[in-house]
Design a protein that fits this description.
single chain, 6-stranded mixed sheet, 5-stranded mixed sheet, 17 helices
């Protein structure tokens, strides 16, 4: 392996989740070193640690939930800092799980689990509440307030007739502790990234209820968040890191590498979870309950295909629009939120490596039900399905934004 003679050191925080794979592979397989980057990874237990250490400059960059940089940059978060997103690290990867008690109540009410049908799954929850004549809110665990998990839960249940303020009570639970909190009876449902949904099933404390991709077929889940001042001060170092991460993402997406990827991620320094559980998350062959029932989830976790790594400003626009459900955001703030995603940096870094880059920085989110070929800066590229479960389409340029 040829290594660059002088290296730029970059300290990056991450959470032990399957979707940290591109960062881990970039370091472990030498992609970062070949690009002249000494990538130092620091494992953290919670998203609050990631926020604080990046916000106060203890990290140069971090593995982040996609809404986090927007919230920090807009001052919605407890720590205010200008954070940019020059690359998406993963798409999809979440599961909605339920407690054993809720599973039993669903079974008694005659409601089956509809793992890939978001509308029918929400209907099953409504039916149980009606039969029990319950007005108590659903207690739902999410890894962080400003997370795709929270936005997907709000969007899904809100679109299915739930009153988000009255019928839903969110609790922040770090991913590695989700099964423990579920077992303690403190939550009814959770939305979390793998392998922690599978871990709840393995421990016999709950079951999976719905695939996150059943809510939004192409939800940008994790991002590389970089301090704006750092990105401005060392642009070439981050261009090199983006090239390394792009190569790592392509390697992770290749099914022939899955065995090696599972072995690397299972190590104590990284995800530290059983290899067979990590393999399920990567393959999409999920065991959803203690009876061994299996569901196959297409595009359960995507690292590379369909321009998965491209930071579309329309995705940032959708995130900002959903944040308006709980926070007041002006039109100017929503516009600023879109500028947090940096396709300009992505293009500058990757145009020598992949000339087939999107010509536009935005698109109609939710408009694709199948794969299509579109013109690119050189040649063409493929975009894949990105539909929302209710058929909605988000146009970031529209004068009148869609209702929640």
């Amino acid at each position: 392996m040829k290594r660059a003679q002088s290296q730029e050191s970059i300290l990056c925080g991450f959470i032990p989740l399957t979707d940290c794979a591109p960062l881990v592979v970039a370091r472990e397989l030498g992609f970062a070193a070949e690009e002249g980057v000494e990538l130092i990874l620091k494992r953290e237990a919670s998203w609050s640690n990631i926020r604080d250490k990046l916000g106060f400059g203890l990290f140069d960059c971090a593995h982040m939930l996609t809404p986090m940089p927007l919230a920090m940059s807009l001052g919605l978060s407890a720590v205010r800092a200008d954070i940019d997103v020059p690359m998406i690290l993963s798409v999809n990867g979440n599961t909605v799980g339920m407690s054993s008690s809720l599973r039993e109540r669903l079974s008694q009410s005659g409601s089956a689990t509809h793992f890939t049908d978001a509308r029918r799954a929400a209907g099953a929850l409504q039916l149980v509440r009606q039969k029990e004549r319950s007005s108590a809110p659903l207690r739902i665990g999410v890894p962080w307030t400003f997370s795709m998990h929270t936005l997907l839960i709000d969007y899904w249940l809100g679109r299915c007739g739930f009153d988000i303020e009255r019928d839903v009570a969110l609790s922040v639970v770090p991913p590695p502790f989700m099964a423990e909190v579920l077992a303690a009876g403190e939550i009814d449902l959770f939305c979390v990234g793998e392998p922690w949904g599978s871990i709840a099933v393995e421990k016999g404390v709950g079951a999976m209820f719905l695939s996150g991709s059943a809510i939004w077929n192409f939800a940008p889940e994790k991002a590389l968040g970089v301090r704006r001042a750092e990105l401005k001060e060392r642009p070439q170092a981050y261009h090199a890191l983006l090239r390394a991460l792009y190569r790592a993402a392509a390697w992770c997406a290749d099914p022939t590498h899955r065995g090696s990827l599972v072995e690397i991620l299972a190590r104590p320094a990284y995800v530290d979870a059983p290899a067979e559980v990590i393999e399920r998350a990567l393959s999409g062959n999920l065991i959803v309950n203690s009876s061994g029932e299996m569901h196959r989830v297409g595009r359960a976790l995507e690292f590379h295909a369909a321009s998965a790594t491209f930071p579309w400003r329309s995705q940032a626009g959708w995130i900002a629009h959903q944040l308006r459900r709980r926070y007041e955001l002006s039109a100017e703030e929503r516009q600023r939120a879109q500028s947090v995603f940096r396709p300009d940096v992505y293009r500058a870094a990757l145009s020598p490596l992949i000339p087939a880059l999107p010509l536009s920085s935005s698109k109609l989110e939710g408009s694709l039900t199948d794969s299509i070929e579109i013109p690119a800066a050189s040649g063409s590229l493929i975009l894949g399905p990105d539909a929302f479960f209710d058929g909605s389409i988000f146009d970031p340029t529209a004068d009148k934004l869609p209702k929640f």
